[in-house]
Amino acid sequence: MDVINSIGRRKAAVARVFMSEGSGKIVINKRELEHYFPSSILQFIVKQPLSKLNVTEKYDIKINLQGGGYKGQSEAARLAIARALVKLNPEDKSALRAEGFMTRDPRVVERKKPGRPGARKRFQFSKR
């Protein structure tokens, strides 16, 4: 099996995934998954598509993550892993779609508008 690559995005985070046959090792930016995401919840988010298809010990995954915070990065990695799994086996797509792993979350930070302190916030109104 060759290396399967895919991309996932969430907020400002971009994840590039390279998946190959192996023993289930996940490396993110040249660090182990447990070192990159110390939180067990974020580790769980990254592994969700693999555990859904029961292939956690079947593939070695190398991920390049850039931008965003840890939550956005973990969800970008989840999307990229799901897309790579579908490239390997297109029949898995419906199972992953039912869990919501194939959908790119479109929500991003709203831009700041001119003459305002934030995106929607206004300066305090003064009558006098």
Walk me through this protein's architecture.
The chain is an alpha+beta fold. The chain has one domain: Ribosomal Protein S5, domain 2 (2-Layer Sandwich). It has four helices and five strands; from the N terminus they run E-E-E-E-H-H-E-H-H. Strands 1-2-5-3-4 form a five-stranded mixed beta sheet. Strand 3 (26-28) and strand 4 (31-32) form a beta hairpin. Helix 2 packs parallel to helix 3. It is elongated, with a radius of gyration of 18 Å. The mean pLDDT is 93.
* Percentage of residues in helical conformation: 25-40%
The end-to-end distance, rounded to whole angstroms, is 73 Å
Q: CATH fold name, please?
A: Ribosomal Protein S5, domain 2
Name the shape in a single word. Answer: elongated
Number of domains: 1
Strands of the largest sheet, in order across it?
1-2-5-3-4
Mean pLDDT: 93
CATH class: Alpha Beta
| Integer-rounded radius of gyration | 18 Å
Major sheet: 5 strands, mixed
- In DSSP terms, counting alpha (H) and pi (I) runs of 4 or more, how many helices? 4
- Assembly of the depicted chains: single chain
Q: How large a portion of the residues is in β-strands, by DSSP E? A: 15-25%
- Class by helix and strand content? alpha+beta
Give the low-pLDDT segments: none
Provide the CATH architecture: 2-Layer Sandwich
Task: Please provide the count of β strands.
Answer: 5
Could you state the order of secondary-structure elements as H and E? EEEEHHEHH
Which short descriptors sum up this protein?
single chain, 128 residues, alpha+beta, Ribosomal Protein S5, domain 2, 4 helices, 5 strands, 34% helix
